[in-house]
């Protein structure tokens, strides 16, 4: 981790807000899913943000996770390094992020490498893992292991087909976005140029 001193003022307030978004219950659920999904002898980390960060920081668990979501022989990260060198570990995190985006996780849901490496935004790491789980459940290709209820299913395309007659009928309807003329009348209006009747 980076050796930084304490932050003060606005920087500290911003960091506290980011840290408040971290969910300890979600951490437990994600750890359980990762261990079940990888189906390997992965050690369960002690609870807590720092332990969760340390567990994921070298990138090996993340790479094993993304590889387990593909059929055997089609893994996106063929060689997972157990290196203790910082740049190798950060490179593995980057490989995971690239593979997650290829798998279907939106770019806006993906954390930055420093969010995990320096522990700047562990809530963003949780959001990425949740998005990855949701995509895996939605794909339903047989590679997902775990309870389907742990993650939300992403909405699928729902195309609607209308006949020409239905489309023509829709052109005659005034949409409520444009307002309504129900109940409108000119009762009590005076003719043009006449003074108003104020009593």
In short:
The chain is mainly α and 199 residues long.
Highlighted features:
199 residues, mainly alpha, Actin-binding Protein, T-fimbrin, domain 1, 8 helices
Could you name the ranges where pLDDT drops below 50 across 5 or more consecutive residues?
none
Q: H/E element string? A: HHHHHHHH
**CATH homologous superfamily designation:** Calponin-like domain
According to DSSP, the number of beta strands is 0
Strand content: under 5%
Instruction: Provide the CATH topology.
Output: Actin-binding Protein, T-fimbrin, domain 1
Main sheet attributes: strand count, strand direction, barrel closure: none
Question: What is the global morphology?
Answer: elongated
Task: Characterize the structure shown.
- The model has no long low-confidence stretch (mean pLDDT 81).
- This protein is mostly helical and 199 residues long.
- It has one domain: Calponin-like domain (Actin-binding Protein, T-fimbrin, domain 1, Orthogonal Bundle), CATH 1.10.418.
- The longest helix is centred in the middle third of the chain and has 18 residues.
- It is 47% helix and 0% strand.
């Amino acid at each position: 981790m980076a050796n930084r001193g304490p932050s003060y003022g606005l920087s500290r307030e911003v960091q506290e807000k980011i840290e408040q978004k971290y969910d300890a219950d979600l951490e437990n659920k994600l750890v359980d899913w990762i261990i079940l999904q990888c189906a390997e002898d992965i050690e369960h980390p002690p609870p807590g943000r720092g332990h969760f960060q340390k567990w994921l920081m070298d990138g090996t668990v993340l790479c094993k996770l993304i590889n387990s979501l593909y059929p055997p022989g089609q893994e996106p990260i063929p060689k997972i390094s157990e290196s203790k060198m910082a740049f190798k570990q950060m490179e593995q995190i980057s490989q995971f992020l690239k593979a997650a985006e290829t798998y279907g996780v939106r770019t806006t849901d993906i954390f930055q490498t420093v969010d995990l490496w320096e522990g700047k935004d562990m809530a963003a790491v949780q959001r990425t893992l949740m998005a990855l789980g949701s995509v895996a459940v939605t794909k339903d290709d047989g590679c997902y292991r775990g309870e389907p209820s742990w993650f939300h299913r992403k909405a699928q395309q729902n195309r609607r087909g209308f006949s020409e007659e239905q489309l023509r009928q829709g052109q005659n309807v005034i949409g409520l976005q444009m307002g309504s003329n129900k109940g409108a009348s000119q009762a009590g209006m005076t003719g043009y140029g006449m003074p108003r009747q104020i009593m």
